[in-house]
User: Fold Molybdate transport system ATP-binding protein from Allokutzneria albata.
Amino acid sequence: MRARFRLARGAFDFDVELSVEPGEVVAVLGPNGSGKSTLLNLIAGLVRPDSGSLELGGRDLLGVPPHQRGIGLLAQEPLLFPHLTVLANVEFGPRAQRRADHRDVALRWLEEVDAAEFADRRPRQLSGGQAQRVALARALAADPELMLLDEPLTALDVDAAPAVRGLLRRVLRTRNRPAIMVTHDALDALVLADRVVVLDAGRIVEQGPTRAVLKRPRSAFAARIAGLNLVSGTTVDGGLRSSAGVFIAGRGTAGAGEDGVAVFAPAAVAVHRDNPHGSPRNALRVRLAGMEPHGDLIRLRAEDGLAADITPAAAAELELEPGQEVWFVVKATEVGVHAARGGV
Assistant:
């Protein structure tokens, strides 16, 4: 698939160029309002761009009605037809295509997603995970040239999500067709996607192999979703000069004078009430915005978005509370400095 879309709606200006190869799964990440749903709607034909192009399987799809594009959609909610049985729901696509083997196709996909035993049930008789399996079978039974997945695991409970995630991985890997998945979950991206694209304000601000992006994020959102701290600025010898003028020592291969980011884990941060003068470590003065449980630790969040993970005993000893000014301290060896293509 090759696509380029330009769209202006009031203050929102969308300009994205994206390609997805056969068999490739691309995860689209980004904050609310970044354009993720707009991208899917433009590809599906539910929104018309001001200008652009869309090519899929050698066909120019711009201007083609949604039902003729050969694109399948799996959304947050299964959206099954309540008056039809599970089998009839899955048959709907191939039957609409006037395929003589529509029943065989439906049964095959129900088997593929481990839902054949539900064939005679109505949607109201299914659990959330079961319904999402059937919705996936219905989408695939139409043999789409491209699959769009719009946060398909968000509405599932913690018990159903892992099974459906594993199912999606298996099914997507066996089809030599492209897929685009919108998600807010780093685990979904790691398990399902070959490549990650990060949108912000209607633009692609970062993209690359999934593990590379999540391990060395170059955008604030990718760092946040990966559970890392990110400070943007300009690279200098030995580290980075933040946009606020603070020097952060770190390790990396970026040349001096480039737009860059310093990245470090919340677990690498020590918290002090006073500035530890004379220390060779980075000391960042922050104001606490909140405290929350994070496994066996307490996650401290600063007003500037930085985070630190400390033990409950340390939090009690420091007598921390929101609004308080403290120092986040991190060793230079724990900080990665990377060039940020196009800035952050």
